[in-house]
Design goal:
By secondary structure, the chain is α/β, with parallel strands linked by helices. The chain folds into 3 domains: 121 residues, Beta-Lactamase (2-Layer Sandwich), CATH 3.30.450; 172 residues, Alpha-Beta Plaits (2-Layer Sandwich), CATH 3.30.70.270; 248 residues, EAL domain (TIM Barrel), CATH 3.20.20.450. It has 20 helices and 22 strands. The chain has an 8-stranded mixed beta barrel with strand order 13-14-16-17-18-19-20-21, surrounded by 6 helices. Strands 2-1-5-4-3 form a 5-stranded antiparallel β-sheet. Strand 3 and strand 4 form a beta hairpin. The longest helix has 28 residues. The protein is elongated and about 135 Å long. Bound molecules: ligand C2E and magnesium ion (2 copies). One magnesium ion binds next to loops.
Length: 593
């Protein structure tokens, strides 16, 4: 199509006139030579008395650097600046937010500049939205595992709680590693982090729907999150029956329980899981749903159920019931009181004699004692250890408690040597908890107590429970380190835990203490008698001594004596006694025998 020159000129003017972008041509000092209507309308809000005569004057309040940029640009032509953002300071008509312009400045030739101006308000708005979305996601993501975090879980729970009921239910599952603190101590923080990342992967993998086959459980909504330390949460939505949730719970636990390889070591780390139903689970034939329905109380209740699962031995799940809340509150009370007890020295140690059975039918009463901790509670009187040892383990007070008992026992033991000579007990047994064994530097602190008290290492017997001793490679290493100090080790409560007679030879122990639950039926149950006999025989073949715990009657004593048990302990001889009474008991009985 051919145009007359006049037409062409007119067309070009129309083109510039209607262009939806602001165009301005200026001299090098900013004097405006040409301006299209879009440029004047965009720049108008910046104009003061001088009008639109000079671009640099006009833009001085928002871009004072322009003259210098032009001066510094020595090339004959080219782009001087691109996409410079100019906050105009007036409200944008369409969006209501403050208007932002975008400016490009080009040198056309040695004398002229071309400025293009566009409205960038929407673009800036979009960028800001994206940024805040990114920030929000970061605030809702756990940086280690890239899982959603506690905040994200709370939001999801709030959403589920607010939606109308539809006959489906949801459940909150809280998972916690059974001995993370101990593993973290021995693996170091980097190793601990690695373990957490593996656990996160396993959880994600276990929730992923299987490649084939139909699975009814919770397809419509699953969220796996890490809400702190070694605590994970899974929210299952779209449940049609309570069994669906429990099936997923078992699958998650199974996924976590397989060994992990970290730094070349194989680590076993099972978890405990607590499950709390959302309020709409009533439709699923779940009766114990909640009184309170907010995100935090759901998380708290799932956590309470998780602690119950842990207390029941770990590697299992527990479903929240209202009665658990009360027990949790009681434990929290004990914890607070126990902190005070340690600070105010309300704890003390009693000693129960462990006597050796002599071939002539008599007993050696100075064979040894076992140190047993007690708590003189200002309101509740003397509290037995069964009520507070586990709480102390859970809340990290066991280290201080154990150190106190060990130091006290060694000091008393040395004191007795000085006062009674040959009549003093020859062995001091002190109970160990699993949490102590995992503490870094703990073996050194045992060595330090031995040194400062002057206690001969061979006179100290540390007692570990079967379940602890059987646990893993790491524990075995610690036990061997203890043995290397010269102390004796005993396997406590034998018969109640995991290990069996056939694995006894794997444990570095000197003594096996047969649990009271066997001994108390020794004279009435053939089955128990046989078990005791077998234990004594195996222990003796391995060069270990045996102690029968909890002898209360003469006939129980007769049975274990017949079975060739080496030592016995029980109310039949003496209850645990305060140090002074023990001395009286030793002297009195020594004098009498
Ligand atoms: P354990 O080490 O097996 O201690 C023996 C328990 O049996 C003691 O209970 C003792 O009083 C009780 N007992 C002894 N003879 C008889 C008897 O003839 N009949 C009956 N019914 N019971 C008898 P206690 O003192 O209540 O301690 C319970 C458990 O608490 C201990 O079992 C031990 O596992 C733990 N424990 C006690 N003191 C400490 C401690 O200082 N540190 C740690 N970690 N655990 C401790
Ligand atoms: Mg014991
Ligand atoms: Mg015992």
């Amino acid at each position: 199509m051919q145009h007359e020159p006049v037409d062409a000129y007119e067309t070009l003017v129309q083109f510039l006139y209607r262009a939806p972008i602001g165009l301005a041509q200026t001299t090098l000092d900013g004097t405006v030579e040409m301006l299209n209507p879009m440029a004047s309308s965009l720049l108008m809000p910046l104009a003061t008395d001088a009008g639109l005569d000079n671009l640099f004057d006009l833009l001085a309040p928002v871009a004072p650097q322009l003259p210098a940029m032009v001066e510094a640009f020595i090339e004959p032509s080219g782009m001087i600046c691109e996409g410079l953002r100019l906050p105009v300071g007036v409200q944008h008509a369409a969006s209501g937010s403050l208007q932002v312009l975008s400016l490009n400045l080009t040198k056309l030739d040695p004398e002229r500049l071309m400025a293009t101006v566009a409205d960038a308000t929407f673009e800036v708005q979009r960028e800001q939205e994206m940024l805040s979305r990114r920030l929000r996601n970061a605030a809702r993501t756990d940086s280690l595992t890239r899982m959603p975090n506690r905040e994200a879980v709370r939001e999801e729970l709030q959403r589920l709680l607010a939606r109308p009921q539809d006959g489906h239910g949801f459940a909150v599952l809280t998972l916690n590693c059974d001995r993370f603190r101990q593993l973290n101590d021995s693996l170091g923080q980097a190793g601990g982090d690695q373990l957490l990342m593996h656990m996160a992967d396993r959880l994600r993998g276990a929730l992923r729907p299987p490649a084939s086959g139909f699975e009814p459980a919770a397809r419509s909504g699953q969220l796996a999150a890490r809400i702190g330390g070694d605590e994970f949460v899974v929210v299952l939505d779209g449940l049609r029956a309570r069994a669906d949730a429990e099936r997923v719970a078992l699958r998650l636990l199974d996924a976590l329980a397989h060994p992990y390889v970290i730094g070349g070591h194989e680590i076993v780390c099972s978890a405990s899981l607590g499950l709390a139903w959302g309020p709409d689970a009533a439709a699923l034939d779940v009766h114990d749903t909640h009184g309170e329905h907010d995100a935090d109380s759901l998380l708290r209740d799932a956590g309470i159920a998780m602690v119950e699962a842990k207390r029941a031995g770990g590697n299992r799940h527990a479903v929240f019931e209202a009665s658990m809340r009360e027990r949790a509150a009681r434990r929290a009370d004990i914890e607070a009181d126990l902190r005070q007890a340690l600070a105010e020295e309300q704890l003390f140690v009693v000693y129960q004699p462990v006597v050796r059975l002599l071939p002539n039918g008599g007993v050696d009463r100075a064979a040894g004692v076992e140190a047993l901790v007690r708590w003189r509670h200002p309101q509740r009187g003397v509290v037995p250890p069964i009520e507070f040892i586990q709480v102390a383990e859970e809340c990290g007070l066991i280290g201080a408690l154990g150190d106190f008992v060990l130091a006290r026992a060694c000091r008393d033991f040395m004191d007795w040597q000085a006062r009674l000579g040959d009549a003093a007990p020859r062995l001091m047994a002190v109970n160990l908890s699993r949490a102590q064994l995992g503490q870094p530097g703990w073996i050194d602190s045992v060595a330090a107590v031995l040194r400062t008290s002057g206690m001969p290492p061979a006179s100290l017997q540390l007692e570990v429970t079967e379940s602890l001793a059987a646990q893993d490679q790491d524990t075995q290493v610690r036990l061997h380190e203890l043995k290397a100090l010269g102390v004796k080790l005993a396997l406590d409560d034998f018969g109640t835990g995991y290990s069996s007679l056939s694995s006894l030879h794997l444990l570095p122990v000197d003594t096996v203490k047969i649990d009271r639950s066997f001994v108390c039926q020794a004279d009435t149950s053939f089955h128990h008698r046989v078990l005791i006999e077998a234990t004594v025989k195996v222990a003796q073949s391995l060069g270990m001594t045996t102690v029968a715990e909890g002898i209360e009657t003469r006939s129980q004593l007769d049975v274990v004596r017949d079975q060739r048990c080496d030592k016995v302990q029980g109310y039949y001889f003496s209850r645990p006694l305060p140090a002074q009474e023990l001395l009286d008991w030793l002297l009195q009985e020594t004098a009498a025998s």
